[in-house]
Amino acid sequence: MGQRILTTALFSLLAAGVAPALAADVTMPDPNYATATAVMNVIKAAAEQELGLEVSTVTTTAVPVIWEAMDRNKGEVDIWPDVWLPNQQGLVDKYVNGNKTVKLAKNGYEAVQGYCVTKTTVTDHNIKSVYDLANPENAKLFDSNGDGKGEIWLGASGWQSTNIEKVKARDYGFAEFFDQQVTEEAVATASLDRAAKANKPWVGYCYGPHQNFALYDLAMLEEPKNDPAKYVVVQPNDDPEWFEKSKVSSGYATTTVHIGYAASLAERQPALVEALERMSFKPEDVSKMAYEIIVNKKPAPDVAKDWIKANTETVSKWFGH
């Protein structure tokens, strides 16, 4: 498989700007959530199949570290296939527009994000809006451990969106009524699964494409339409007072997902960069691949190879055949 886990030691090396010895032609991060893992494996398998490259992977969920590694252009991380905008706009501004050390492929695909709940939450308790959470009695509906506070999943540590959701919880007025959970996605999905099977309320950050929309009856909570004046995001890597300086009381702007890559890759692997610029994915395809990985327990590399086999014409166009 050629996959190397990003151990604490290697993580420290990347964070410190020290490039480990890498034998592969290209290195990509696997953030360990199914949609991005699926796309990463498609790019990896296609590059190996079409160009004969050796592509290695490192596993990490720390998005700023991924960008810092691309910024150094030392081969630590060459391609990041999960640039969510506007979530990672600050990183794009710094490294793509500012330093010009990272490139953003022009193509992308549409996505959706916000808070979602089980359908039971809507039909039985009439909770339809984020503002319905700013009520201590409603919040108690989401209390599964009896401590008097509801539980809400904000995302995983290292996600840019998780910091945004922390600000939203404050500015939508429900932060004090909830235990704001930041855990790996698998932990959140397990709690969602328990709630869905028991027909109980559940609330948390949701994004799509995602396998959970196929697995469960979910509804997105209503949020005010994106208003730039009410959507001011400062990330921790930009300012230690990011939380105080941020204000988010409107929904996300139109969300798209792009591929980012280290600028030096254009010189090292020009044919691959040309393919990256042509790549695009259908959201429903990404959801289906994630479903195969999570629900059917199919190895991600196998899912990717099956997708490539079923989309040979698309892959050929990517590589200019």
UniProtKB/TrEMBL annotation:
The keyword Signal applies. This is ABC-type glycine betaine transport system substrate-binding domain-containing protein. Residues 1-23 form the signal peptide. InterPro entries: ABC_Gly_betaine_transp_sub-bd. Keywords: Signal. SUPFAM superfamilies: Periplasmic binding protein-like II. It comes from the Bacteria. Pfam families: OpuAC (PF04069). It comes from Shinella lacus. CDD domains: PBP2_BCP_1.
